[in-house]
Here is the input.
Amino acid sequence: MIDLYAPLAFGSTIVLQGAPGVGMAVTRDELIHRLADQHGGCAVLAHLDTKRNSLQDKLAQISETGVAQHTALVAGSGFAALDERRQVCRTALTIAETFVAQGRDVVLAVDDGLLVSTTVGLLQRRARVVGRGSLTILLCGWQHDDLDAELAVRRW
Here is the structure.
């Protein structure tokens, strides 16, 4: 979970959970904005297009908040098979690790539909600080009991 009053460690896994409309997107965009402004970092967003215009909405949202120039967006269909949705996450992870290899601090933000236990495990194993770059994982989603259990097992 995220504590908005505590500093966030580079190379960690951060979880934003809540119902739609509670400000997860605002918090995510603020983290990206601060990382880009204060540390020269960037973000990679892994997004599932579950509604007819959700991809256009996501592009408009990141453009309005001013983080578009620091953000790579990897999108897939929310109606695709599970393996195809996992591939969206793996592609975003590969892009993020490329930026880390270049010495940049990166936030990899993963949408709710991509948060299945195998994906969460893969992401948590890859979060790290490497030399001058770091990969911080930001999991954004609704509250899931299976996600809570998966994170608790990996945390302890």
Remarks:
- DSSP finds five helices and six strands in the chain.
- Residues 150-156 have pLDDT under 50 and may be disordered.
